């Protein structure tokens, strides 16, 4: 009986073990099949993406990159053309050089040599600047003075003068000893603008530097980039290949078949696939075409190989599933759990690496006001998921602005804003971690940064913020050689109020005192809106004189008046926002004067948004340099080309006469008699130079003076009228017609504001 029971138990145990083994086998087979199918799908997707989508994305990326860099090359070549044209019109290279005795007048010979040396060093791509003067005795400055024989003159330099174009690009042999070598050359006839030139001024460019410039349009190390004139007379390549090479000819044939001036396409050549982008550059006399071809096979091939490998591995896994299930059926769960544990650790590691970036992104959205649709509780829960401790906490927002990038102390220049901000951010993060339990720094990449502090409710922030601000200020001063303005918000109890606090501290920084290098603005202590300092006076007189100097083309006076204008805005106690708003107002009036003079500002400034550019500059010195370079110089250059010096001198004398005698009964006849011209010439020239009629200019001058007296004096209206040359009744009528209100009403409004 006992033996039967034992046999029954053993049989039952055997069935249990067998069923358990079959369960393990089925489980393992299912796992392998399920794990193998995603591998097949993944491999197929990778193969499809590498075969099509990746190539298309690379083509679009390549085209955008090449188009951007071609614009940079176009700007550099355009600057070289402007530079050579500027020197060609210089009086050093005028008609007096024709038949000039350079040996006898050696001082001028030395001056020309020094000028050519300066031109040669003005741009890194210029290998040599030369001057050739033809005639009976051909002379070459290279840059030293030398006399050419008749053969070298007629074979090399005279054909350059024979060209119809005043300025042009060419590939030319300037060294008779290297007749088979042609260098890229920019040529300008001298004297500039002459119909009968007798010489040329030219730049000879370094082949290696030109090749390096073209290499900027090649995103990868391999490939081909070249430029050529549409006529085919000029060809420049990064690899030094000829215009008749099979690859170049094939590319040109393909581009010609497309029939467009710019675009991109794939090109197969010798078992390699290239992304090709092409376009045109507008050069003097003739357009150039640029072509950039880069191989992408080296990028897509590894992806294709990996996708095929994934498919093969997945198939092998399916075939081995039965064998491995029998081999490891009883030990399946231990490896699975180990694998899951390792994957969990790996995922946690990746999450820890990406968390700072996610937190920065969240704070950016919060400060910019993109999360206003969420309630306080929703925002707090999201912050808790990002590992912030926000319960029973309040928030502080700091806004930092770096100043003094272009001072003599610093080692930075324009364009280094991102680098400077990055260095400052590192200092802020390190110091904030020492003073606060929870802090996050945000980089705005434009010499500004934001800091969000999370402070426990039972902890004071004032002393810690003050210590942090002073230590940060010292570090910025010592290491970056720059100054900093810090604005500290009031304590914020609700997370939804953080965007408003951020806008307030940004606005507070704009109220910084221009004269103080480093500033700390605590919104809890400093009531910016309640301060009672006198508002700065806008220098209307300097503005009027500056506009007048611009209209008459007096460049030196305009530069000096602009400096005085900015100095008046930056007087003692001036705020940054006052200076910036004043300069924006001046920019509007200058643009109005430009339009009145008959010049289109959009064409003059090439469509640039000057208001946006000026609003991004916060330092008076940089504002002055920007205004001189971007506004005054282009207008004065344009004006100087439209009006000769004699006419400008006469109109300037007339305008001075009007300013000195506007209070008298003066007329066009009086002014013409004073300047020694007739009324018809004066009227026409006055309109041409100033853009206004004589009587309109006189009326505007009188009205400006009248408004100044109404604002700044207590004179009676009758006396004001007499001071500006009008009778009382006529003065009231013309003032109301031009200003839309009576003089009395204007005085009341100006004093109220």
From TrEMBL:
Highest taxon listed in the record's lineage: Bacteria
Pfam family name, one: GGDEF_2
Keywords, sorted A to Z: DNA-binding, Membrane, Transcription, Transcription regulation, Transmembrane, Transmembrane helix
Keyword Transcription regulation attributed: yes
Domain HTH araC/xylS-type: start-end pairs: 652-749
Alphabetized PROSITE patterns for the sequence: HTH_ARAC_FAMILY_1 (PS00041), HTH_ARAC_FAMILY_2 (PS01124)
Record bears the keyword Zinc-finger: no
Entry's transmembrane regions: 28-50, 309-328
InterPro entries for the chain: CdaR_GGDEF, Homeodomain-like_sf, HTH_AraC, HTH_AraC-typ_CS
PANTHER family: ARAC-FAMILY TRANSCRIPTIONAL REGULATOR, HTH-TYPE TRANSCRIPTIONAL ACTIVATOR RHAS
UniProt protein name: Helix-turn-helix domain-containing protein
Source species of the chain: Paenibacillus alba
Lineage: Bacteria, Bacillati, Bacillota, Bacilli, Bacillales
